[in-house]
Every structure is written in structure tokens, then in C-alpha cells.
Amino acid sequence: MGLAMLMMTVSAQVNTYIVKTRTAQQKAAAAQQAAVNEAASQTTDENAPTDFISQNFKFYSLCDWKEGMKFMVMPEKYDLIVRTFSDAATGKEVSSMSLRHKIMIYRGHTVSADGHSRVNFFCQDNNKMYYFEIPNGSFDDYCYGKLGVPTLAYLGDVDIAKEKLMGKKLYTKGTIYRVDTEYDGDGYREVKMPKDMEVTVTQVGVGSRSFPVKIIVEDANGNEFYQTFALSKTNSGMRDDEFIMDSLKHTFYASFELQDAIMSVNRDFTTYIGKILHTMQPTKMMTKGDGKDRTVNVPKMTTFRVDQAQRRPGTPFVTLSLTEMESRRPYYRDVLFTHPDDLAERDVRLDDYFGYIFAMGEGAERQTTQEARAAIRQGRVILGMTEDEVTLAMGEEPNEKVMGSNGKQDWIYYRSKGKSLFIHFGRDGRVESYNTGATTTKKTTTKKSSAKAAQQRAKKGTPIEN
Predict the structure, then answer these.
(1) How far is CA 402 from CA 17, 262, 383, 424, in A?
(2) How far apart are CA 84 and CA 150, in angstroms?
(3) Most C-beta atoms within 10 A of its C-beta, which of 160, 233, 253, 282?
(4) How far apart are CA 35 and CA 102, in angstroms?
């Protein structure tokens, strides 16, 4: 056992994917500390994109894996009982712990002589071939089920995060983070940190199979702490709908914000007047429609200019007057410039916080024609509009989207007095026809009946105003 522990320590010292917070590093050898300091001195691209995660971390299903993709074996408790890999030379199963922290390079998939599908790997650390045998069915059946290979943490995400984030300034958005408690194991303790605190990324390494990227940051006082993330979710074994409750902190934006992409929320709200910003989340706002104020659902990445900011007397809220930059339509939104956790009021929510709703700078770029722009600014839908142009003209996403078997799509906007606007798109994704007609209430309207109504009522005609 002593020899095994010694070998694990040596392995950790030369493996740059294994990183630890300073509390654990102080117990390590001087050589390891020097290597960490060298890694921490690396620089990164100064022009990181605003939508950092989606533009840099692509999800690869097992069906899309390319030969040469790198993974690290990160066994969890369950993997001590169920073995994942077999030695390709002997066909014998191999203990997951014996492969712990070893790098596996994907070498495609094959079918064995007895008809079992195998996912093949070359181990970079011992120059041996291994395979994972798919339990049931073919390779295609397995990968289309969005399944992966147990124990493996995708190193592609780690490499990209290291390149893009080393030395970057971030702001904390959560309150619970971690500090390592041992150098040779995975022990940690949770620590509480304040929100909206500026920190610097000092190290990026491997976390676990579920959350492959470990990002270590340092605050102004020299305290280090970390969080682990599933950035692309490649082989993470986690579905999107599982990132809720406690797992939500393992999504990047729930724990950190890039300084390049957003500003720390300034409580002097007047400093935002005249600034350009965009929505980071789909959010409800007020706008003009049908001659009166109404609440609409504004999509994510919509760009606005802040025209006015006025505090609502007797409340912690500030009313922002906004102009959507493409349609020039006015919007209004009550926001908090103090985080809800710092307020005594009970009727405040996180989704009213300025730093949760908005980020500074422009959002998604939308291509519009000159003819469509004129209609968008008047709040009208015309023939030939794209989906983006319709959303801009209407000022919100539709209440219903119905996809037909012919590849065409219907959008339905509920209006007052039992009316609805039906918009029918052709196969090219452009408005083919539209019409306003009566509809049933939301509770009794079904997608099938809505689609049928849209197809029967839609007729070509003059532009319909929002």
C-alpha cells in the first residue's frame, strides 16, 4: 500500500490535468509547486466571445466522436464494483482504479467476433489498447441513446478552458465553492464566498466524469477556491434537465461571469443610461401593443439601449426605459440593482436582478432586409419575413409553435378578445401567409387544433399590425 501511495503521488506530480487548491498544494513537493506556478503564468486570448460557453465548448455525442479525442479515467464509487474497460490483448476486465488518472485516446469502434460492439481506446500512459464493450445492441443504438463511456472525463473541454480562461478576471455568481483537503485524493470542504466578488483564474484542470472541468480562482486576499463544471456536457452522463437544484452550480454561468462579457453591477444605476446591453435570459417586459401596455416574453440575446432609469419610490426597484436596437420598439423593465440576498424584502426574486437579466454589449446579430426593417419598426408582419424578423416585429416569442409533418411551421400569438394571430411559415423558414382569427382559450387549445386552424384561416393579405 505504501508503494501504491508513492506511485500515485509521483503520477499526480507529473500529470498537469490534476490541480489542487493551495491548501493542499502546500503539502506537496517543491517541484510540484514550481510546475503549478508555471501553469498559472500562462496567458489567454483577450478577445473571448460574449457567449463564451456555446461558442467554445461544443457537445459531442458518442456518435460524433473523432479518433484522437482525449479522455481521462476518473472512477467514482460505483466504478469500483462495475469494471469499465478490458485489456484488448487478453480480453480480461481491468480494475478502474488501476487506470485512475490515465489518459485514454479514442480509436473508433469495432464489432468483435462474437458480435459485440466495442469502443476502442489507446492508453497514452502505458501504450496499451483497451476497449469498452457495449452491454446491449449495436454501436448506433447505444450512441443515439445519448449514452457515453463510464469513468471518462473529456479533456478537450479542459484544454479549451485552460487556453481561454487562465489569468482571466471573473465575478462570483454563487456562494458555495470548494477547497481541496488532500493532495493525493479527491477530498474537499465547502466554503462560502460573497457574490459579485472579482477573482482571477489561477489553474484549470480535470474534475470528474460528471463535471470534467475544474477551475481554481483566487480572490484579492490570496484565498483559492474552485468549482467543477460540465461545459460542453460531452460524455458527462448528465442530461440538461438534470442541471437543477444542487447540480445547477456546476454550470459555468451559475458560478462565474466573465469580466469581458459583463460589468459588475454598479448600484449607481444612472451609470447605465445610454449603455448597450443584452438579455442573458428570456425575460418578461412591458411594451406597447394593440394601443396599450402589455407584457411580452423577450428572447435571450436581444440587444437594448438604456434610455432612462428611475427609482420607484418606496421600493428597491428601478424602472428601466429601453429601446430594442433593431426594431426601435420601446420596452420597460423593473429591476433590482441590489442582489436579492442583500435585501430584507420577501417579494423580490433573482430573476429581477439586473446582473441576472442583462450583460453589457450587443447580443445576437440578426440579419434583416430593408423592407422587413421598415415593417419591424412599425410592429407589422409581412410576407417573406424570417423567424427572427417576426420575433422582432412582434416583440416576443410566440405563445405556440406547431410543426407540421410537411416540414412547415405555424406560430400562434394570443391576442385580446379571444383573437389570435396565425403565422404560417413555408419550408424555407419564411412567412408564407398569416391571418387573425378567433380561437379557444389557452386551456382548451391543443397543438393539433391550432395547427388546423392556422392552415384553414391563413390567407394572403395586407400586413397585420402587432
Answers:
(1) 46, 35, 19, 10
(2) 7
(3) 233
(4) 19
| Dihedral of alpha carbons 452, 458, 459, 460, sign | negative
pTM, 2 dp: 0.51
Maximum separation of any 2 CA atoms in the chain, in Å? 83
Give the pairing of strands 283-289 and 276-279: unpaired
Q: Which residue has the higher pLDDT, 440 or 29?
A: 29
Rounded Cα distance between 363 and 353, Å, is: 18
**Kind and range of the H or E element at 317?**
strand 317-324
- The C-alpha cell 445492441 sits at 137
What are 284-303's pLDDT values in tens digits?
999 876 567 888 888 878 88
Rounded-to-integer distance, Cα 258 and Cα 253, Å:
9
Q: How many CB atoms lie within 10 A of CB 300?
A: 14
Cβ neighbours for 427, distance < 8 A, ≥ 6 positions apart: 406, 407, 408
CA distance 250 to 231: 9
The secondary element (H helix, E strand) that includes residue 217 is: strand 213-218
Question: pLDDT tens digits, residue range 390-444?
Answer: 888 887 788 888 887 777 889 998 877 778 889 999 988 899 998 877 554 333 3
Cα angle value 84/89/95 (rounded, 5°):
30
Residue tagged 485552460 (cell numbers): 162
Residue of 125, 109, 105 whose CA lies nearest to 117: 109
> pLDDT at residue 49 above 60?
no
User: 2-14 and 30-40 helices cross at what angle (nearest 10)?
Assistant: 30
The residue ranking higher by pLDDT, 22 or 303, is 303
Are 202 and 222 in contact, with CB atoms under 8 Å apart?
no
CA-based nearest residue to 282, from 363, 337, 336, 346 = 363
> 68 is written with which cell numbers?
484522437
Q: Quick one: three-class SS letters along 227-262? A: EEECCCCCCCCCCHHHCCHHHHHHCHHHHEEECCCC
Mean local confidence (pLDDT), 246-255 = 84
